[in-house]
Amino acid sequence: xxxxxxxxxxxxxxxxxxxxxxxxxxxxxxxxxxxxxxxxxxxxxxxxxxxxxxxxxxxxxxxxxxxxxxxxxxxxxxxxxxxxxxxxxxxxxxxxxxxxxxxxxxxxxxxxxxxxxxxxxxxxxxxxxxxxxxxxxxxxxxxxxxxxxxxxxxxxxxxxxxxxxxxxxxxxxxxxxxxxxxxxxxxxxxxxxxxxxxxxxxxxxxxxxxxxxxxxxxxxxxxxxxxxxxxxxxxxxxxxxxxxxxxxxxxxxxxxxxxxxxxxxxxxxxxxxxxxxxxxxxxxxxxxxxxxxxxxxxxxxxxxxxxxxxxxxxxxxxxxxxxxxxxxxxxxxxxxxxxxxxxxxxxxxxxxxxxxxxxxxxxxxxxxxxxxxxxxxxxxxxxxxxxxxxxxxxxxxxxxxxxxxxxxxxxxxxxx
Length: 416
Hints:
The chain has helices at 12-23, 31-38, 40-67, 74-82, 84-117, 123-137, 147-170, 186-199, 206-211, 219-245, 259-293, 297-300, 304-327, 331-362, 366-371, 373-406. By secondary structure, it is mainly alpha-helical.
């Protein structure tokens, strides 16, 4: 008799590690440039506020999961809220965002490898080299197989961040300008705001992570650990890099360091980029795998059909991310559009909808909304915040694409 595949194996500590490995990654490297655009005071306030906000929405998502144990992913949650249309829409959004996020990690790996080698190869080759281990690390069927790799991933991003900060501190930019606040246009300001907004954008994986926990009621311990670490680390990294580099700090910030320090920081961060990309593609593949095989023997057993399907799905998700990363010149902008369209809802807006749904159906209908009017107001505002981020983020990113085409900065497909 073959051994069954056990999914519910994760402790809250390991889920916290997986959450940090997924969320605290290349996104943090854009935070110092956000401070350069809006100033250090509003930038820090925004990072801290979004960290607290993301903690609150984490709580709402996890409570919804505990109230509906059958929910495995955002598609299942969409079915509860909006029926079949909701399932298809939120499933589609999860897959698109996960594939684009995987591609984003491939581009981060491309930049890191190019920095380490002095850009001696075609950029497509760097992307291809990075795509292979990203694919291999996504192949385990259960997330517990990725936990120890994620421990290494978290250690690497912490050390890389420290190396980057030390490198900036030892080599401060002469004549740099550090501003408490910076007057700027809405488009420029909101573009910089999207960096911290989407640096917390990992909630679309929470249902899948909690579904593989031994004791799902301890999930908030993992979420609190994630948000506390991410918020503190983001603030420290952004402030230190901005103070020592000033208004010229690049995005990603490591690219503003002297060559040797740049290579050291990128080299140490590479495992984190790999594991984050693997977790994203694993998530996209698993949503479809569960959808196809839920309630069948292939889901929990080592069958030929089960493993063949799983490997093909992982190949498909990673292959799509790789092709998009090398074939679409505006792919980095499309990541922004995908984040605006979907991450704004998964990380922020939908959490308010989850509370409104459960309070209505489980606590007494509209009377519950009236009885808990403070919470009702807060969650309506959460829903509206998601809508604002979605609309404004999409508008700003589309404007950037138009400007990029006008000034001729868009490259060609499959170019080096």
